[in-house]
Every structure is written in C-alpha cells, then in structure tokens.
Amino acid sequence: MTSDYIVDSDAHYLESLPELADYMPDKNPFKQRFKRKPNKMFPSSGYPDHYMYGRIQRDEVGYLKGQMIPEDIPTAMEIVGANAIIVITQKMLSFARLGGDDERPELIANAYADYMLDRIIDPDEGIYALLVLPYQDPERAVELIDRCGEEEGFVGACMICGGPEPPFGNRKYDGIYEACQEKKLPLVFHAGGASLDYFYIKGYEKFIETHTLGFLWSNMSQLVSIVIQGVAEKFPELKIIFQESGILYVPSLMARLDAEYLKRSSEAPILTKKPSEYMSNFYYGTQPLDEPKSTDYFQSAIEELGGASQLLYASDYPHWDYDPPSAIKSIPFLTDEEKELILGKNAKRVFGI
Amino acid sequence: MTEKVKVCKEGELKIGSRKVISRDGEGEIGVFNVEGKYYAVQNACPHRGGPVCEGQIQKEIKADWRGPGNRIEETISSIPTIACPWHGWEFKLENGEHIGDSKIHVKTYKVIIEDKNVYVIC
Fold it and tell me: Is residue A159 a part of any domain in this protein?
C-alpha cells in the first residue's frame, strides 16, 4: 500500500547574509561586512569580495552589477584618460576552473571574438581587443587565429596563465606560437584568477594573502616554462608580453633562472643564451605597479628587466587594484621620454596601433 | 712569458685518465687524456673556485628541433666537457667555454708532446 505522505530529505533554503548578520554579535567585523550584501556565498581568500565589502567602488561602469555594456568602454577610457584601450575578457580569466572541459573554452572564445568584433572593437575610437585563445585545444585555438587574427582591431592574442596543464612551454602549444608569429600577432600571457584557488586550498585565510601570490605565481610559472623550453628560440619573431603581476618579480626571476641555468645548462640545450637575455626582450604590463621603498632599487630593477622600452602601461580598470597613468607619471627617475614610451609609444609599436 | 711544464712521459697518461699538477702562479692544472686527445684546465671553477678538474667528463648535449609540434630531441655531441663537482658548471675542454654562456671560461692551456714527453704551456 502506498502513502501520499512524502518526505523530501534534501531541499535548500537560500539564506541572506545581510539578514543573518542581524543575528551576529554587534562588534564582530563580519556583521558589518555581511550587511554590505556581498555577492558571494562565503567571501573567502580564494573566492573573495574583491571590492572589500563596499569599500572600493566602480559604480561608473556596470562591472559590479555583473555585466558591462559597450558604452562602458568610452567611460573607462575617460576615467583612465586613455586615447586607446586594449580590452580583454573577464570571464575567461577563470578558464582553469573548467578543468578538463575543453568544449566551453572553445565555444566561449569564439563567441567572445565575434561579440567583440560586433559590439566593442572600434579602431576609429581607439578601442581594440585581444583574441583570447582556447589553449585547452591548441588546434581549435589556431583555427580561431586563422578565422579572426587578421580582423582589424584584434591587435594581439592572449593566453590566460592560470592553470594550463602542461605549462605553456610544452610543444603542444607550438601551433599557436607559429600562427601568432606568422600573423605578426603579439601574444599576451595574462595572469589568471583561477590559480588563486590553489592558494585558498592551501589554507590562506584572507584574499590579501591569496592575491599577493596568486597572480604572481600564475605568471612566473608560465614564464619559467616558456623560457626554459625555448619558445623564444623556436619562434624568434614572436612578441611575448606578460601582464598583471607587477614588474619587480621579473629581475628576481631573471637572476634565479640564470643561476639555475648556469648550473644545469645541459637540461636546456635549446637555449643559446641565458634566460635573462630572452626575458629582457619580452614586454611587461606595469600593473599592479609595485613601488619599493628604495628608488635606486626600483630604477635598477627596471634597467635589469630591459629598461623602459619593455614596459607597457596597463590600468586593469575596472578591477579593484587598477593603476591610473599617474602611477607611471610619478616615477621620479624616469625621463619624460621614458614615461612617454611606457604610457603609449611602446604599445603603439608592439601592437601596431 | 710562457713556460713549458712537463706533465709526464707520453703513454703514462692513459686514455680516460687525468693528472693534476701544480704550478706557481697558476695553482693546480688538470691534464686529461680524452679518447687520445690531451686537454689542460686550471683547477679553479670561475663560479665559486671549486675543483673543476675533479669533475665528471662527458659529451655536451645538443638540441635538435625539427619544427613546430616536435619534441626538442636531445643528442650527445662529440664535444667533451667537464662539470665542476660543486655546482655543475660545465665547460668545453677544448677552449674552457661554459656550455651555457660563452662569456664565461675556465682557464685552459695548450698541451704539446715533445721528445716523448707531455708538456703544458703555461
């Protein structure tokens, strides 16, 4: 005999953090934080409220509302004071979270390329974009380069550094490098958010800890692979750019790689010069600009990585840690000519703007 | 001013063996017989001063890359090298050049055979 009496043993109630906050002790900081309506279930070190529970605001564009619109780009240019802007994806920064799914990266990257061409890119207005590549399937990435790499307004291609397995020095990505070199598309390696999770898993408690190392690790790990596996030796005309980990890590990594290389040269026989000599021909986005206490040290670091000719001003707007151009203009030891290079002339040359 | 320093009688230094001699002003010099050819190297690594002449002798590994998508094949060349046992800095026995940086050298010496003796020219 059956009964109409049904028990659902697992259903969910979506509680509101601001409402729960009413039940928290008055002086606990989370009472205040959760009252600000964080857009995450549990903001944490690996899945944070980047905007610090309302402290950092970007109300002038739609970013914090969950979507930007084409009209936000001129607004961003006005806020930054940029005559030209190179836009890259937000969503695909987290590619690595997709794990072994190589269907969505291809799908999203192609849709993104068409969307950008249709709605965003406007060279007459100084609006350019990077072609974000679904590196998970290199053959499909090459197809995307073939399809869109020569469209006006795509001034380069982009690979997200967070999480590629194997790392980008592996020969499986050779086709991408070859295609970019042939089409004279500079290739930007951009730090990616998904690798931040690895630090969260390791037990960091605050995003300040995670973010300090996450993006840095993301770029450093790929830079080591690309240099030691000889990508610059195999594709000497390919312009290589690393973005969004600041710049001070570069001379440090140069010194470390050179020291390793001189002790273990037989492990990298394809190299014909020291790692630092390849790296000083790469380009580096300046944001988020680290500013050491010692000006002399800062100056030496820039000289060490190749000088002002290798630096590209980047705002990262509207992200929480964006740099306005004053970050470059206020560097005391740079000449006016060097500031002009970093703020615009290098990018015009590298990206052919 | 160069000087001719006797190392040993020809034939004493067998293939695959080495002998370290001392010379005022030069310190120790290692003399090697590698496959019948003599080499001489100062026993002081330019890195940290390690006893490079006590190091292992092998052939330099070269890269052979046949284009995009291919693995970088590593092959053993015919160029003999010696690696400092302290940190692995590796030098070509022929000219003392570091295999990873041609600007770095360990000092090498010419070896000659005269009157059935092996000499190093310092």
Answer: yes
A264 touching B (Cβ < 8 Å): yes
- Taking contacts as CB-CB distances below 8 angstroms, the residues of chain A near B100 are 261-262, 265, 268, 271, 274
Q: How far apart are CA A35 and CA A32, in angstroms?
A: 5
pLDDT tens by residue, A14-63: 888 888 899 999 999 889 888 887 767 777 777 788 888 888 889 899 88
- Every domain of chain B and the residues it spans: 4-121
CATH number where A117 lies: 3.20.20.140
Residue A28 in any domain: the answer is no
> Do residue A262 and residue B89 have CB atoms under 8 angstroms apart?
yes
Q: Contact, A186 vs A347, CB < 8 A?
A: no
Residue A53 lies in a domain: no
Residue numbers in A near B57 (CB within 8 A): none
The range of the structural domain enclosing residue A131 comes to: 69-351
Q: What homologous superfamily is domain B4-121 in, according to CATH?
A: Rieske [2Fe-2S] iron-sulphur domain (2.102.10.10)
Question: Which of A266, A267, A276 to mutate to probe the B interface, most B CBs <10 Å?
Answer: A266
Return the DSSP state at A269.
T
CB atoms < 10 A from the CB of B22, how many?
10
d(CA A309, CA A250): 15
Per residue in A76-134, pLDDT tens?
999 999 999 999 988 888 888 888 899 999 999 999 999 999 999 999 999 999 999 99
ipTM of the assembly? Answer: 0.95
- Facing A269 at nearest CB: one of B63, B98, B101: B63
